[in-house]
Specification:
This protein has 21 helices and no strands. With 418 residues, the chain is an all-alpha fold. It has one domain: MFS general substrate transporter like domains (Growth Hormone, Chain: A). α17 packs across α18.
């Protein structure tokens, strides 16, 4: 009898292993949501949220705003060029910590900025953080989790952007006007805490496939990262970067331009965008149900609709709310789409493949603000946003078809996450 009670009280190795897997998945998801939230929600998109205040304090023209917006992505692109090699040699933890510290120091510089030089230096340094942080989670899930849990975590991590934006919006309301830099001090403190958490949670060590990739010649590796079947993925990434960067940079500017009522609505719009984007936590299940092709069409159709609403009727509260509700979840789901799609196209080189994907996204994010700033000075923000919406519609033609990994051995043959 005693033996039977003892046996019943013992946890089986299978259930114990399952609990440990779930705990690792939760810890890694939390780490990813926090670091992505501070790098995208604060360090990157905070520029657009506080743009009216920065414009007033430093006397920035629309063209300069666009160029500065693009400049914040240059460091991001440089980080992307380095992160794949770094992660393959030392593992994902170091790049994530470097990104967190870049966000912390950069945002502290913005908070302390007394002139344009400090402002630009802080924005550019903080802008590198997403390049260091996002891609290494592809290797982190490979090191820490079994295959059946990886894509669910990868789909959840980008939703951190929504939480970051949702927090930044109320801070913009509280610290509206001359006190805007206090919000950036809060950003910097939160970034530091998230970085400490990542330093404890994200695994060290390179994956075996990553180490093998390091032994491959540069030309051979480049060839493997530029297969023909990856073209729709890369085109989608460029468009997603361009559409997203233009919207994040000029949405608040467009709404604020409608007068005093617009200035009051803008922070609420930003908060609503972030809160609505929190629905992206369910994108893993949505991808499994819809499949990547239909998810792709739904995402870019929503992005285009959200953008054209601001282009045509930015003074309508219904249109502003509708734009926020459509854009928030669609943009966050777009990040998850790229992460999962890239993981399926490059199963043997997750960080290198995703770094290549985000590199093309970076091309769009760099080109978008600069081009939009020039066009807006000549045609106005309305026409610029309308053209951006048109690009979103065109992108639907590049939805994935069939097996995204083509004939690649070891590729994932499902359209949704495991």
């Amino acid at each position: 009898m005693v033996d039977s009670i003892s046996s019943a009280g013992n946890t089986s190795p299978v259930s114990r292993a399952t609990r440990e897997e779930r705990a690792r998945a939760r810890a890694l998801t939390l780490s990813g949501v926090l670091t992505v939230g501070i790098s995208f929600g604060f360090a990157r998109y905070g520029y657009g949220l506080f743009l009216p205040e920065m414009r007033a304090e430093f006397g920035l023209s629309t063209t300069v705003i666009g160029v500065l917006g693009s400049a914040t992505y240059v460091g991001y692109l440089v980080a992307l060029l380095l992160v794949g090699t770094l992660a393959s040699r030392v593992g994902p933890r170091l790049p994530v910590v470097v990104g967190g510290l870049s966000a912390t120091i950069g945002m502290a510089l913005v908070a302390a900025a007394e002139n344009e030089i400090m402002l630009v230096a802080g924005l550019v340094l903080a802008g590198t953080s997403p390049g260091w942080i996002w891609a290494p989670y592809s290797d982190a899930v490979t090191l820490a989790l079994p295959p059946r849990r990886r894509e669910t975590v990868l789909a959840a991590v980008p939703s951190g952007t929504a939480f970051g934006v949702a927090v930044a919006g109320p801070l913009a309301i509280v610290f509206h006007g001359a006190g805007w830099q206090r919000a950036w001090w809060i950003f910097a403190v939160v970034a530091f805490l998230a970085t400490v958490h990542a330093a404890v949670t994200v695994p060290r060590g390179a994956t075996p496939t990553a180490l093998n990739s390091e032994r491959v010649g540069v030309r051979s590796l480049a060839g493997r990262l530029l297969p023909r079947h990856a073209a729709p993925l890369y085109l989608t990434a460029v468009s997603y970067g361009l559409v997203g960067s233009v919207y994040w940079l000029f949405a608040v500017e467009r709404i604020t331009g409608e007068g005093p009522s617009g200035a009051a609505v803008a922070p609420l719009f930003w908060t609503l965008t972030g809160v609505a984007g929190c629905a992206a936590l369910g994108t893993g299940a949505a991808f499994a149900r819809l499949g990547l092709p239909w998810a792709h069409r739904l995402i870019f159709g929503s992005l285009a609709t959200a953008t054209v609403l601001l282009a045509v009727v930015p003074g309508s509260l219904v249109a502003v709310v509708g734009s926020a509700v459509l854009y928030g979840p669609a943009f966050m789901a777009g990040s998850a789409l790229l992460a999962v799609w890239s993981y399926q196209v490059f199963p043997a080189r997750p960080t290198a493949g995703f770094s290549a994907t985000v590199f093309f996204l970076g091309i769009g994010t760099i080109a978008g603000p600069a081009l939009a700033g020039v066009v807006a000075d000549r045609t106005g923000l309305g026409a610029t946003l309308a053209l951006t919406a048109l690009l979103g519609l065109v992108t639907i033609a590049w939805a994935p078809r069939g097996n995204p990994a083509g004939d690649q051995s070891g590729g994932c043959r499902r359209s949704g996450p495991v």
